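Translate sequence into structure tokens.
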Amino acid sequence: MSSSAPPPRFVAPPPRPLADPERETAWRPWMAPSALIGGFLAAFMGQLIIAAVGSLFGTPVSDPSPAVNILATLWQDICFVGAAIFLARSVGPVSPGQFGLRKTDFWRAVLIVVGTFVAFTILSGLWSQLIGIRGDDELPDSLGVDRSTYALVAVCVLVTVVAPLAEEFLFRGFFFGALRNWRGVWPAAIITGVVFGAIHGAGTDAEFLPLLMLLGFLLCVVRWVTRSLLPCIALHAVNNSLAFGVTAADWQWWAVVLLIVGAVSACMLICWPFVGRRSDQAIGAAT
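Result follows.
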């Protein structure tokens, strides 16, 4: 009499936990400057085309109109984001979480953002008193905020919403991440801060550059502590809104407060569809 054993039951393996996107980037340190240089080169080529088209409508290349300057600046921000994604995807699929587009503890992030902003404001005041800063940011004037209401609105959106999104995506989302894989957090934060301040040299007086470098460094610290890019974008939007409303537009305090709230809200709304995606959904992947 023989007996047969029942066939083995197939047991599905447990689902593999989602990897921590912070630790799975294969980004190399050389990719950080490559993304920045590539972004600027692509921006320059596009700006030549924009200037050429503007010349067809009577805008001299040597003295571009506010519309040409605004479009050129917008194109540069787009190139920053595109260069970061292009370099990141060169070593494999990427997800929003790898750039820091992920949720974080709300109230903890608020405290960190407020504390960082207060510290930056105090240090900025001390620096201004020490060297007697009297200059203003030249970028809004070059974009024509004093010539047209339409230009004022366009530049307001560009400075307070588009720039925080694009610059944080490139610098704290990718540049800082690539360098962090090389020598760790603090060297990466210092280098990122210095480069971030330096690229603003064309439209900012030299005495402001150390403050921008400090801001770039502090934003890296916020990115590292919160493990999210959202607080960095919010802090960047607050800083730009305050600078724009006070120095460029000369608005009353309540208008500046409304601008800050509107800019931060707009940035978060734009980011939210990407934050809501699972961390294993690659950017640009086919569906």
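Note: The chain is about 65% helix and 0% strand.
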